[in-house]
Amino acid sequence: MLQGSAGYKVANALMMKGAWLCCVIGGAYFGAAALAAMLALSIWRREITQDLPFVLLLGGIGLCLDTFWMYAGVLDYGQAAVMLPLGIAVAPVWIVMLWLAVGLSIRHSLYFLVNRPLFGALLVGCSSPLSYLAGERFDAVVIPSVQGLAVLAAVWVILFYLVFQRAKTALTAV
């Protein structure tokens, strides 16, 4: 089932919002539970094989991009950043989990944006700073400069245009 039923789309959207809350407020522990629920539903519905490429792609992009934002001074995750050997810090686990959750939503609750890549990219890009600002209100991230969020939004517009365009191509080829 390419797009899934309407009920599954609604469930996926609610789980995506729940994952955001769990990750931002509860960190990796609560985020893991929310992500596990999304994964279990994808497996149960036999969607995981088609979802997995988007999950892996967005998980990798999210790790790299949010780590870049840390080093560029756009975002500060403080103690939540993961310290690797040699003193290298990378984005927190919980933010990568959010990217994974988005990957689990591309073919389902975000499908309407896949069919409209430019609209989807503009919507996601313009709302991304609001998501980070909300995260700041929950003390999950510090935003040293609001101007950096404009750059972040522009990057998200380009990124999600490419992601939605790739998803559209992949989903119409099936």
Notes on the protein architecture:
The chain is mostly helical and 174 residues long. It has one domain. It contains six helices and two strands, in the order H-H-E-E-H-H-H-H. The chain has a two-stranded antiparallel sheet. The longest helix has 39 residues. The protein is globular and about 45 Å long. The N and C termini lie close together (10 Å). The model has no long low-confidence stretch (mean pLDDT 93).
Descriptors:
mainly alpha; single chain; 174 residues
Structure summary:
This protein has helices at 6-44, 48-72, 93-103, 111-114, 117-137, 146-172, and strands at 82-84, 88-90.
List the SSEs and their pairings.
Elements: H1 6-44, H2 48-72, E1 82-84, E2 88-90, H3 93-103, H4 111-114, H5 117-137, H6 146-172
Antiparallel strand pairs: 1-2
Helix pairs in contact: 1-3, 2-3, 5-6
